[in-house]
Design a protein that fits this description.
The chain is an alpha+beta fold. The chain contains 3 helices and 5 strands. Strand 2 and strand 3 form a beta hairpin. It is elongated and about 65 Å long. It starts with a helix and ends in a 13-residue tail after the last helix.
Length: about 100
Amino acid sequence: MKMLWVLLLVLSSVPGAPAVPAQRHSCHKRLLREHGCHSVPTGTDSLRHVHDALPHHFWEGEGCQVICYCNLNELLCCPKDIFFGPKISFVIPCNSQ
């Protein structure tokens, strides 16, 4: 029994094993004051329409890591792996222009 406690103590003090989970990027909401979902691209320069098959979905920023969904006058923005899931996110077209 003492050997088990010693083993657990040694394993818990191994360097490189984080005691706290790594920081994950999370989702955030943003209100569109005088704009609705149909006028998002003209109202915000940092958003680009994803694809015609995905209405109200926009890439945020210069890359294609954060995707936003517009609902009425509010944007919900999340990292694409959280928003779509890791199995689907790699097939979503990236329009970086």
